[in-house]
Amino acid sequence: MKSVMIIGATGVFGRRLAAHLAQFEGVSLILTSRDEAKAQALAASLSPNAKGIALERSAKLAEQLAKHRPWAVIDCSGPFQTADYSVPLATLKAGAHYVDLADASGFLSGALLETAELARNAGVVAAFGASTTPGLSSAVVAELARNMQRVESIDIAVTPGGQGEVGDAVIKAVLSYAGRPVPVWRDGKLQHAVGWSGGAFLNIEGLGKRRVALVETYDAELLGPRYEVRDYVRFRAGLEARIEQRGLETFSWIRRHGFNFNTEQLVRPLSFIRQIMRRLTSDKGAMFVEVKGKDATGLSMSKRWTLLARKGDGPNVPIMAAAAVIKRLLQENTEPGAYLAGDLVGLRAIEKQMLGYHIRCGQNHRSMHRQDQKLHKAA
Q1: Quick one: average pLDDT of 36-42?
Q2: 248-259 CB burial, b ≥16 within 10 A, e <16
Q3: Rounded distance, CA 202 to CA 208, Å?
Q4: Phi then psi for 243, rounded to 5 degrees?
Q5: If residue 367 lies in a helix (H) or strand (E), which one and from where to where?
Q6: 30 and 4 in contact (C-beta within 8 Å)?
Q7: pTM > 0.85: yes or no
């Protein structure tokens, strides 16, 4: 049995990842929470090979790692906008693989440099950003940009269903950069724009019209230089409830005009509003990635990948890259070291983890003289 410790296992994404990994053959789970009773209840509901323990994200982590000796540790706790590298470093020093759901550009930009040597010396793997971004998003771009001689632009958008759960960590992360500079790739170079600005409506097949705005991710810093993007890389997100989306855009406008807030005091009222909006919105969410550029013959080409999640399965999407990383580590010998998750597992491996969920993925390719459609189902 390979034991996998999940930090933040009783959170929105931790619970879903625990339930997913409980189906993996040869895996036992160590589920952690600040509330031991919650961790134990979750463990009891999932598998006889699961146990729950009390654990703060970093307090006494080394002691718990020495006691339980996990094969791998997955950090689902967040928010990573304010995190340091104490958890991955402690995990690697304990000789365990490390995986996280980090999406914060500041955290991810230094992660490989901070951990690569230690991971190699310990003979284990550290996989960062194993979530929707940059894990899934970068894997999609790698697939779409294949055989393109030049990439002009990369456009990514995520709009979850309003009925999906949102934990306090996500709300804190969103508020941390609303109205503040976030990295963007524009005119072929790294620049900055304002978080939750530039709101616009998108028409998404199977979903209808949703409003999205610029959010902080690592994608601009990662994908812009990697593909030598000529024009822009942008990542936008939108909430289904217009009042929530407009509220965030308004908060961004107020903050960038010099008004400061104690965001900690906003978490509880925003969480309350979120619970109300869940009753008035749908269970459908979507993601799309569009890459434009030149194909091998020099013709202008547009490639789009879309994901549509139904029946409340959208919140499972952020855990799929992490599940794919664990599956690879179980099945394949992987060179020790530090990786971004999207470089460790490809799109097909991530989509394979979506089987059994109400999640459908597909691709559409268009060039100047032809339209070539290729659709496939993830579930």
Answers
A1: 96
A2: bbebbbebbeee
A3: 8
A4: -65, -35
A5: strand 359-367
A6: yes
A7: yes
